[in-house]
Structures are given as structure tokens and as C-alpha cells.
């Protein structure tokens, strides 16, 4: 609704906008206007007055219905769609309920819908249903079927109907709410089952809720599934005999099947409320806008459903800023009276006043958003109160940024008081936020006073890195032995800068340094690295050892040097190196090992150079390890070595025991047993002999098992061969005689012929084969036999 229509006691009708300004004025009568009715479009109005006048006309044209009756007309109601030509209908109520309809001749036809029950005080028209109230109760008329479908009786008949009039309102097209005195009824119009109709109306009304209220009802309006009620309040006074009229109340209640629940209640201040009666108040509402109009003789009060803005106002009033900010953010799209940023600033101010600087700074990120001017103002405010550190971690650092001077101011503040905090900001803030050279100079000045401060040095290296002065950053990292030095070298390809710093890198972390050097041989050659490490042989060994582990051939020219390095710094890996290297000079290796008396390595080198007897001798004489000697003899598998081993061991009982336990599978134990002197005491001899016998039995069992397997396999293969040879061989016109080279089959298959086919698939005419060989009745393929005997033998055989 975009305007209000207001009737006065002096017969005038005013049209007001929603701010209360008069837009139009109509002189209708000289006495009280009883009722004004508007259609849904707001284009037509119906007015009735106490002197019996009824007018229905368009607000934009005065054409319409104008009539004077001889009795007061209390109410008038237009069809909701009166604007449409086929719905030109309205009803009036005085002593009768009259329906006016305009016919096709443009004349008005009148019908009496009801009479005889006193004055009609209220009419409400919704769709095809007309509800009205008289002294007896409330009735509903279905204009589509021209049937009256209900009669809801008045509950409290002791109340005068003219002093406590009935309040009616439609919630929807089928739900009517009736308020009378202190009772409320919710009525629903329903369709009757066709089987139950007989002579009854097609619709009926069911009262779904009925309850009593504390005060007298002056007006009703729906609000979703709740009700807005206007109450006339009378209270008993202790000092007066009469009831005391209090301010009217506007309540929201939740109807229940047998009662109601109060949701909210507001007492309204209107002029002269002490003199007003229940009939002096009216409640009208505008559907779709949730606007409610409370009308009294002297005032009109507009009530609106509380929205999020009202809630935010209340939260701000109570200084519940956090909740207000959250509520404002939730309703940001629909918020009308509040600026989210304004609320947030109020909250930040409140936190600062409380001294909760960290929380205030955190809220800046959410509240200030992309407003750079507000950001700078807040930074300067935090500087004034000495709390730059609090706001530093929340400053914008993405696409939207403050002026470099702001970030530099904060960095200088940290540099004065907190080196660790300064270093953290340098790590977290992108280098382009501030003037890098200015900060480098500031750090350099501080280092003059504290040249060994590790935090400042590390931060300076990071600043040099941002400024792409990698050489300076590298020098600082190496000086500090900082773990990020390797990452810096890799990331910025600084291998040319570390050629003369290899020793420093390896002193810091040998493993990482060597891995980096080997991974980047194309940038730092092996020869260059070896040259740099020449004066640090222990480091050179680490590098060459890892190089050898990766590829046995890459550093082959350094293998001779590695012999000495292994011998000096890493003997456990010397023997594996000698085994794996194919480029190591054996004479040099033998010389080094003999100088240092490395027996195991010397034994290996002697055996590799072919001097196995000398190697065995060293094992027996210097190592005195019979197990190693036996193992060595097994590896070489040389009868002379076994003889030397037996000869050396024959006068040493422990050696004899070792030989007896291990020699059985390589040398006949009898040879050893025969050479043992009589009377020699040999430890564990019985056990050794038992083991020899067990080993012999085991060998016998293995041989027998192998023999059985061999016989079974031979028989199986022979049977398979026999089955294969027994199969037929296909002979057709494409095959030829291997002797005369004519087709094997004659052109006339009716004539008798003989063909000999061998298992080797060679075919002959029988007459082309020579006579059988030395074994009567056994014929061999001449071609295959010739291959076994030699060249030309087959041809000679054919000629025979």
C-alpha cells in the first residue's frame, strides 16, 4: 500500500502518504465516516457514513456509485478485484447486508444477503468469501455458490456489541480470524465431502483454535503463523471505584490448539488513552510489507516488524559489538541503516579503550577490508599508543598494499626493540612491500654495534636474497653455516660462485655438499672439485667415495689416489673398493696394503694377481683362520691349494678339525685321514668323523635321488618322442622326392605307387632309395645320414 485513506468524524476523507502527508481530500458528508474500503489495486474506494451515504468511485475518476439511504450505513466492502469489469461488486451493512452488482447494462442490482439479527458492524471480503459480524455472531457467505456456510456465535453476550465490536481478518483465502471481547477463534473453510452434502452447503467451517485473552480485543492481523493483537486494557485501581484505562497494547501471540503463547508485548502511548474505549481503536495491516497501523481518535501509530537493523541497534546499545558485527555481516545484502564498517570501527575503538590491542588489531583485518585510508589511519593510531607490533601481523600484503613508508615504519620499530620479531616480518612479508635498500642500510648500522648477532646476519642475508645480491647472501650463510645455503645455491644457480667455497660447504655439512656437487657435475666438474679439495684429503676422500658409489667408472683416473685415501681414512671400504674397481692398479694397491700390513686386502690382491698359494699362506700363517683358508680354497677350486692347505694343517690339530668338518664335499676325506699321525690328539674328532659319514650318506642319497629323477625324465621323454613319431605325416602334391626332385605323388593316382617318408620329413620314391644299410630291414634317411658322416657322402650313397 502506497497511501492511507483516513475518515474523520466530520465527514471528510483524507489520502495520506506513508509519512503522513495529505495528498488528496474528499468532502463526503457532514457527519462521521463509518467505514472506508479499498480494492486490492488501490484504485477504487468505497465510503459509508452515519447519515446513510454510500459512495464507490475510482480515485482517478469520480464515476461510480453514489446513494443515500434512510438509515446509517455502518460498513462497506468492495470486491478485492473491483477494478476488473466482471467483479464490479460491493456490500454494505446497516440493518441489512446488501450486495450490489453492476450488470451488463451498467446498472446496479441489489440483493439482500442477510437481515433480522441487528446492526452489522464489520465486513471482510476475501476472494469468493464474505464474512460479517452482527449482534448474534459471525457468518460467512460464498458468493460463487450463493450459499451461507457458517454461523459462529458470540461467546460473551454480556458485552455490548457496540462498545466491544467484533474484529475480523482473513489470514488467507480460507482462514478467518475472529476476535470478540476477550476470545479469539481461528476458523478454516473446508470443502465438504460430496457424499455428505445432501441439502448442505458445499463448504463448511472448522474452528481449529479457540482461546481466551487477558484483555479486550480491538484489532487483529496475521503475521506468518502468528497473530498481531491490539488490546484495550482496563486495570483495577486501588484508589478509584472505576476501572483505570491503561495504554493500549500491541502483542504478538502464537496460537495453539487450546491456548496461545505470548511472543512479544509493547504498550503504546497515544493521546488521551485514558478517555478511550475499546471501540475507539482499530488495527489495519498492509499485506506484503508487514506494516501495521494502530488508529485511535487522535493518533495513527505505524508498527513494523523488527528486522536485523533493529537487532543491531540493540546490540550496539548494549555494547555487544562482536555480536553486532556478526549480525551485520550475515545480513549484509539486506542491511539498510547500518554500515558494517561503521559497526566494526566502533568495535575496534571499544577494544582499544579496553586495552585489548591484539584483538583490536585482528578485527582490523575484517573491518577495514580494502579501505587503504582507514588502514593507514589505524596504523598511525597504533603507533601513537605504542602498539605497532600488535597490528603488524594483520597488515595487507596481497594485491592491495599500503604505502611502503608504513611497512618501513613498522620494521624500524621492530629493529629497535625486537630482533626476532623483525626477522619474522622479513620472512613473512614480500620484499616489494618496502624499500629494500633502506632496510638493508638500517640492519647494517645495527650490525656495526653488534657484528656477531646471528639473527641480524641471517635477516641481512634474506634481504640480500630479495635484492638478488646472492653472492653477499651466500657469504653470510657460509659464515653462519646456515642450513638454507644449499637451497639458495640450487634456487639461484650459484654454482659459479661456490667454486672457491667448496671446502667451506663441506666443513659445514659433508653429506649435503657432496650430494649437491655430484647432482650438478655439469656445472662443477669433478676435476675442479678434486683440485679444490687437494689440500683436504679427508674431504677429497668423502667426495671420491660417493662418486665411486654412484658410478664405478666416472672417476677412474683417481682410483690410484683413492687407494691411499681409503687406506688412510676409511679402511673398512678399502676391500669393497678393490673388489669393485676395474681401473685400480693392483701393484700399487698391493704395495700400499703390504706397507700397512693389511692382510685381508693383501690376500685379495694376491689372489686377484694369480698368486693364490702365497695368499693362502698369509691366511694360514698371519690370520691363522682355518675357516677363511678353507673358504679361500673352495673359491679357487684348485687341487694344489687343497694339498698345500692339508700339508700346512697336518701338524695342527685345530686346523685338522676344521678341515674334517668342511673338506668332505671338495676332497676325499680319506686323503686327509691317512696323513694324520698316529697318536695325535685331535679335538672333536668323533664328531668330525660322524659329520664326514653323514655328508657321505647325504651325497649317496642325492646321487640316488638324481638317478631316479633322470631315469623318470628319460622314460617320459622317450614315450613323448615315440608318440610324436607315431603320428601321421601329411603328403600332398607340393612335396618332392629328395632324390629325383620330382613330385612325390604321381599325376595318376589310380596307379599303384610307393613312397617312403622319414621322421625328419624328408620324402623319397621307394625306387629312388638305395638298398638298405648294414642293418637288414632298417632304412635311414640318406640326407640326414650324410650330414653326420660329412660332405659328399650322401651323393655317393645315392650313386651306389
From TrEMBL:
It holds the Pfam family zf-RING_Vps41. Transmembrane segments: none annotated. GO terms for molecular function: zinc ion binding. One of its GO terms (cellular component) is lysosomal membrane. Its main location: cytoplasm. Residues 737-785 form the RING-type domain. Belongs to the VPS41 family. This is Vacuolar protein sorting-associated protein 41 homolog. It comes from Dicentrarchus labrax (European seabass). The gene is vps41.
